[in-house]
Design brief:
Distance between the termini: 55 Å
Structural class: mainly alpha
Helix content: 55-70%
Order of helices and strands: HHHHHHHHHH
Number of helices: 10
Largest sheet: none
Oligomer: single chain
Number of domains: 2
Strand content: under 5%
């Protein structure tokens, strides 16, 4: 059985707020057996997987870790919503989250457009890994601040995730730096021409009239925060 199964069935039970005893009764197994399933000590049959899927109203693909969507849907890049066209432009009447979201998302539009111009798969991969890990870290800290949230949403334990995620970010950052300096990383050929990254504030404003203001504001805000650390 997929190793994700035990984590996910534990997560689903805790998110629903029911005891292991109640879930076992509803699923027609002993509490001891369900405990073994949740801990990954024993493997269940496919009939039990189907029962659990019906019980929690999720797909078998979700239970087995084949899809991040409870329905089992696997999205392509074309189906993902764009931040610019999303309807949730205001967060419960607060301007600050909305502004910061736009600053970040608009700046990322420029960054990834420049990365696309490089035609370097390794560079795009490492930059993406770094940024996704940053979002993961912030989301996990916010999630963990609510005591009733089920920790089984995550595979990495509470004692390891911070160190591991920081290490992963440091590695990705080092690989990006190496690639930009012409070193080979992994199986990708060395990146030799950075002329595609030549830019000025003027060229940014010309090429990205909708996004350049956001990027420049993000740079200013970030450097102001950095300067506070060294004063």
């Amino acid at each position: 059985m997929n190793m994700e199964f035990n984590r996910i069935i534990t997560l689903l039970r805790k998110e629903r707020g029911i005891t292991q005893k109640q879930a076992a009764q509803d699923l027609g197994v002993s509490q001891a057996l369900l405990s073994h399933y949740e801990k990954g000590i024993r493997e269940c049959g496919l009939d039990f997987v189907v029962r659990v899927a019906d019980y929690y109203n999720v797909s078998c693909d979700y239970l087995l870790g084949r899809s991040a969507e409870r329905s089992g849907l696997i999205l392509s890049a074309e189906e993902l919503p764009s931040p610019e066209t999303a309807k949730d432009n205001v967060y419960k009447g607060s301007v600050l989250p909305t502004m910061n979201k736009k600053l970040i998302s608009n700046s990322l539009n420029i960054l990834f457009d420049k990365l696309a111009a490089s035609h370097d798969k390794g560079l795009v991969t490492e930059v993406s890994a770094y940024l996704m890990m940053a979002v993961y870290k912030m989301f996990r800290m916010v999630y963990a601040s609510a005591p009733r949230n089920a920790s089984s949403l995550f595979r990495l334990s509470a004692s390891r995730w911070e160190g591991y995620s920081s290490a992963a970010m440091t590695r990705a950052e080092a690989d990006v730096n190496a690639i930009l300096h012409g070193e080979e990383v992994g199986e990708e050929p060395a990146f030799k021409d950075t002329s595609c990254f030549a830019m000025t504030s003027e060229s940014l404003a010309r090429e990205y009239p909708l996004y350049s203001t956001s990027l420049l504001h993000l740079i200013k805000t970030s450097e102001t925060n950095i300067e506070k650390l060294v004063k």
